[in-house]
Specification:
Layout: H1 2-26, H2 32-65, H3 68-75, H4 81-98, H5 103-124, H6 131-148, H7 157-176, H8 183-194, H9 198-207, H10 223-247, H11 253-259, H12 263-274, H13 281-299, H14 305-311
Protein name: Permease of the drug/metabolite transporter (DMT) superfamily
Organism: Psychrobacter aquaticus CMS 56
Membrane topology: Multi-pass membrane protein
């Protein structure tokens, strides 16, 4: 039950992130470089405050109950540079490529890369899937393609490459969450480490000029863009990714990969509710197919061969 709750909350946060990004970048309220910088800063600030309060209560609890060992194990979880680097690559490549790709094209490339990365790693780690799970996964992918294909177009090579890099980086970041002891602290320190990349992002964004897909420019920053980037960072990213890291140890890598196919459905639903986007029959059919297939995949479990022989 905990795994389901954490996963659903995290997926809603991912969908909200997509919505905030679409509102900020597609409407021209802010440029991709500035959006990424503010997103990282706000997430680090939010999680830094929460971690300070959390650390105080942990130490106080340890002093009262004498649980020093478990407390130290939690406090020693400070994420990693690999996770932080993956986070920066994901956030930056996604923001830059987003404005150069149609919604359908971007989603198809991004989630294809995520699926290949995470399911490939799961298979490498000997996570076996049943025939029904493979069928459910294929059906979910077909439903996903059916949903996104009408808005897809032939992308530029650079934009497609950046979005694929974003998907791989997110897959790596998600996989790294399976081994964390404290999801909150791991996520917080990953975002704090990411701040070291901000001067580089600003420098490159300013001096790339016309080479960049979406240039850094103070003229492109509006109050609404700052607010959207801040909310995307502090809530949808900072808190959302912490909850995702809480869910990851409770899920198989293949499960974590497949459930993310629900994100475009949730993002489109938020678009209908908050942006008054049209509700089409294609969306209803595709959503039912994707959600149904994901549910079948999650509920069906691979029966080990040894257990099957024992039953027989």
């Amino acid at each position: 039950m905990k795994a389901t709750l954490y996963t659903v909350i995290a997926l809603v946060a991912f969908a909200a992130n997509s919505l905030f990004c679409r509102m900020a970048l597609a409407e021209g309220y802010i440029d991709a470089w500035s959006f990424t910088i503010i997103r990282l800063l706000s997430a680090a600030a939010c999680l830094g405050i929460i971690m300070t309060i959390h650390t105080y209560h942990l130490r106080r609890q340890a002093a009262e109950l004498g649980s020093i060992i478990s407390t130290e194990a939690i406090l020693n979880d400070k994420g990693s540079w690999l996770s932080s680097s993956s986070l920066v690559v994901y956030a930056l490549c996604f923001s830059i490529a987003y404005v150069a790709l149609d919604t359908g094209t971007g989603a198809l490339i991004l989630f294809s890369a995520v699926q290949l990365t995470m399911i490939g790693w799961g298979i490498y780690k000997k996570e076996q899937l049943s025939a029904l799970q493979w069928m459910a996964f294929i059906v979910a992918v077909i439903g996903f393609i059916y949903l996104m294909l009408p808005s897809a177009a032939v992308p530029s090579l650079m934009a497609a490459t950046l979005m694929a890099m974003s998907g791989v980086a997110w897959g790596v970041y998600s996989i790294r969450g399976k081994s964390c002891v404290s999801p909150l602290r791991a996520t917080g320190f990953n975002f704090i480490r990411s701040l070291t990349a901000i001067p580089i992002l600003a420098f490159v964004g300013i001096y790339l000029g016309d080479v960049a897909i979406n240039n850094f420019s103070l003229d492109h920053i509006t109050t609404k863009g700052i607010v959207l980037a801040s909310v995307s960072g502090a809530i949808a990213s900072g808190m959302g990714y912490s909850i995702w890291y809480t869910a990851m140890p409770l899920l198989k890598t293949t499960q974590a990969a497949v459930v993310q196919l629900c994100v475009p459905v949730l993002a489109a639903t938020l678009g209908v509710v908050f942006l008054s986007e049209p509700l089409t029959m294609r969306f209803v059919v595709a959503s039912a197919v994707i959600l149904g297939a994901v549910l079948v995949f999650i509920l069906n479990k691979k029966v080990p061969i040894a257990a099957t022989k024992k039953i027989m």
